[in-house]
Amino acid sequence: MACKAIVSSLALNELEISADWYEERAVGLGGLFIEFIYKAFSAIELTPEAYPQKKNNYREFTVLSFLILLFTIITIARILFIYYIFFIPAAILS
Length: 94
Description:
The chain is an alpha+beta fold. It has one domain: YaeB-like fold, CATH 3.30.2310.20. The chain contains 3 helices and 4 strands. It has a 4-stranded mixed sheet. A hairpin with a 3-residue loop joins strand 2 and strand 3. The radius of gyration is 13 Å and the shape is elongated. The relative contact order is 0.23.
């Protein structure tokens, strides 16, 4: 069942840091990265239960092999809380 996403300040901060990292490598790439992530948010909103449940009721959405979105579902209001974004730039450099 579809949910409405709320993104934590921690996740937004990591998103900004990650976008800056991409922008340093090529002009415009940071903006494309942010667009890509918001498309991932939309995919999670549509079918949040489709992603594996991990520790403490958190679920993971892995974007490629170097980016993980960690979220939980607050079922009463069908709110999707995106808690954190794990960005691992070293994984894409090797």
